Each structure stands twice: as structure tokens, then as C-alpha cells.
Amino acid sequence: MISTDYVPDLLEQGLRRAGAEGLAMEARVADAENLPFADEEFDVVLSTFGVMFAPHQARAAAELLRVVKPGGRIGLASWTPDSLIGELFRIIGRFVPPPAGLTSPAAWGAETRLVELFGPAAIGIRTQRKPYVFRYRSAEHWVEVFRTYYGPVNKAFAALEPVRQEQLHGEIVALLGRYDRGGGNALIAPSDYLEAVVTKARDLA
Fold first, then answer.
1. 55-67 mean pLDDT
2. Number of domains into which the chain is organized
3. What is the pTM of this model?
4. Residues pairing with 79 in the sheet
5. Does residue 17 lie in a domain region?
6. What percent of the chain has pLDDT over 90?
7. Do residues 38 and 67 make contact, with C-beta atoms less than 8 angstroms apart?
8. Residues 75, 41, 54, CA angle at the centre, nearest 5°?
9. In this structure, are residues 69 and 200 in contact, taking their beta carbons and an 8 Å threshold?
10. Is there a domain that residue 4 lies in?
């Protein structure tokens, strides 16, 4: 099993977790748009809230298809556009607009987009919408953690002046409040994601 990421610290954390679980794993720093593997090297390729953040989606999808064997599977978990995180991306986009021509990461959470990216090279795309529940002490605690450790939020705050940071903070807290089911005792906020399994065609001719 090989794990890849472009952030070395995340790979180190993954190796420690794998060791604790008794799993043998190799880690490599890699770019999802230029994977350092041979054509058709793997039976299965997985990405959990990872490849969806590659800037050039078609290129990243092509790389996933390239490294998986014919008849192999690509497993994906991606936040849906209408989820808490999907709404978070839209808020961030208003404060820090993305470069022209880039598609929202949450597009990976829509089956129609997966058909666009993988359809011509796939014999099947199976999807299922599933819930994930964030559990934190409060909305403020959630923002503190995500502002420190979650790339999209961290980078957004870093790009803003203090006044705009406060405004962004307020909008995120309000967003969390709309999703909160904790009744004031703690933050319990659901956010749906799309689980997808893409099966690569055996003959792409």
C-alpha cells in the first residue's frame, strides 16, 4: 500500500497511524496531477477528500485513470456542493476569489461532474451520498481548528487583512450555526459527502 500527498507532515502522520494499526504502508510526496507511478500500476486507487482539491480536475482524473489497471477501481470521497463544506467553499470564494477558469473542489461531489471526468473511460460509476458529522466543543472551536490545520481555511485567513478576517470568521460561525444540531451543548454539524467507485474500462480503444 502506498500513500501520497504533497504535504510531508500529513504523510508522517499517516505513517504513524498505519504503524499503530499494524499496517504496512509506504509514503511518497506526490502531485495528484503528475503521479510518480507507471501506467496501470495499481488495482485500486483511493482518494478521501484529497484529489478534489487539485486545481486542474481533468488532469487529476486522467492521472487516476492512467495509474489504475483496466478493470481496476477508483474510490473517491468528496464533499457535495450543497453540504456544509460545499457552502464553506462558496463563502471562501467570495472573500478570496479563485483564479479564473478553476472549478470548485465540491464539483467532485456531484455525479454529473464525475461522469464528465471519468465517463468515457469507465464501464461503471457507482455513487452514494453519505453523511459525516463534525463534533466540536463549539463553532468557535471548529473555526480555530480549521483555521490552523485545514488548508483552504488556513490559506483564506492568511490572504486577508484583519478586518476581512473578522468578517470571514463571522460568516463561518453563522454557517455552522445553521447546521448545528447540538442544541447549545456542543457543535454537532452534519456535512454530506459523495462516495464514488469508478471502474475503469478494460478496453479504451
1. 96
2. 1
3. 0.89
4. 193
5. no
6. 75
7. yes
8. 50
9. yes
10. no
SS3 191: strand
Closest CA relative to residue 64, chosen from 23, 150, 125:
125
Q: Are 113 and 107 in contact (CB under 8 A)?
A: yes
**What pLDDT score was predicted for residue 36?**
92
Is 18 a member of any domain?
A: no
121 contacts 202 by C-beta, under 8 angstroms: no
What is the residue range of 125's domain?
Answer: 31-200
The CATH number of the domain where 99 resides is what? 3.40.50.150
Q: Report the relative pairing of strands 26-29 and 2-5 from DSSP bridges.
A: parallel
Whole-number pLDDT of residue 204: 60
Contact predicate 70/43, CB 8 Å: no
Indicate the average pLDDT of the chain.
Answer: 93
What number of other Cβ atoms are within 10 A of residue 172's Cβ? 24
Q: What is the pLDDT of residues 11-42, one digit of tens each?
A: 788 888 888 989 888 888 889 999 999 999 99
